[in-house]
Amino acid sequence: MINGKTRTCGLIGCPVEHTKSPLIHNTVAQRMGVDLAYVPFHVKEGDLEAAIKGAKALNLLGLNVTVPYKSDVIPFLKEIDPLAAQIGAVNTLVAVDGGYKGFNTDMPGLYRAMMEDGVTIEGEQILILGAGGVARAVALLVASKRAKEITILNRTVEKAQAICSEVKGFYPEVEIKALALGEYASLSANSYLAIQATNIGMHPNIDEAVIEDASFYEKVHTGYDLVFNPAQTKFMKLVKAAGGRAFNGLKMLLYQGIIAYEYWTEKQVPAEVIEEVSGLLEE
Ligand code: NAP
Predict the structure, then answer these.
(1) Which of 45, 153, 197, 204 is 20 to 30 A removed from 227 (C-alpha atoms)?
(2) What is the pLDDT of residues 81-94, one digit of tens each?
């Protein structure tokens, strides 16, 4: 029950109406007996700086940040965590003296989800489909976890090339290259972990996949789709039809939230609470 001592966290973005984050945070807080309420805040274009200042003035404990503000928010932070600075995107703000410190919990969340799903990065040949903000962060993650070779496939090949150069700047020893999306037939290996980081296949366009050709999926032993709505994406169906394992982005969503919650409350979320929230997200 909200009372005089309740602390507030929330989500800023545009839009925010589709978010599952209140379900994650309010359930965890309730189960752990923590006096915290989590609410969505629709912040219109041009209002971001005022929103951050207002949040601090209202003594909000923390915020999540979603599209389109994950990079735009950085100039308005008091401090930034080194991982978030490297990725260039912040999805979690934690109140500090005089403002907020920015973190990225999306990539640690994805890593934790992959570990739990038994998906290995080290020594793997990895395909990243897409070259947007999330794909860039994924490329840094898999480079930092010692993938054997990384190939980024994107419709706009220049964006994939730019990510390769940036990743090389941080990890000079990494094998990384860019290909245009249509060039998948030239892939030399035949056993890839493919991470799907475009927005293709998201509800309502559930009958679309970034690559439709079934023969591509014969080269994929594991497909990890960062899309989570629908739960079984077309990409996942194609991976499975070719005999591979496939996962969606729901666990990544769950763990980015759990890690943010742990920053805000400095309390570790027990496994049984995580399991309960996971079940609620799947409903
Ligand atoms: P973004 O920066 O807008 O990038 C979108 C990517 O999709 C680009 O590579 C773009 O290619 C590609 N694309 C879009 N339409 C396409 C089309 N018709 N044909 C071919 N390629 C197309 O998006 P983002 O922020 O990186 O997010 C990507 C996805 O990650 C989101 O859709 C979301 O579902 C997922 N995500 C999941 C979580 C989670 O917790 N599970 C968290 C964050 C994001 P071009 O470069 O050629 O335009």
Answers:
(1) 45
(2) 999 999 999 999 99
Which residue's entry shows tokens 């999805």? 91
Provide the pLDDT confidence category of residue 265 given band limits of 50, 70 and 90. Answer: very high
**70: annotated active-site residue:** yes
Please give the structure tokens belonging to residue 264: 């805000």
Burial pattern 142-170, b for ≥16 Cβ within 10 A else e, equals bbbbebebbbbbbeebebbbbbbebbeee
In a mutational test of the pocket of ligand 1, which residue from 11, 104, 134 has the highest number of ligand atoms less than 8 Å from its CB?
A: 134
Q: Give tens-digit pLDDT for 130-152.
A: 999 999 999 999 999 999 999 99
Same structural domain, 125 and 100: no
Q: Which two tokens stand for residue 137?
A: 């962060």
Q: Is residue 1 part of a domain?
A: no
Alpha-carbon span 207 to 193, nearest angstrom: 22
Catalytic-role residue among 56, 70, 101, 234:
70
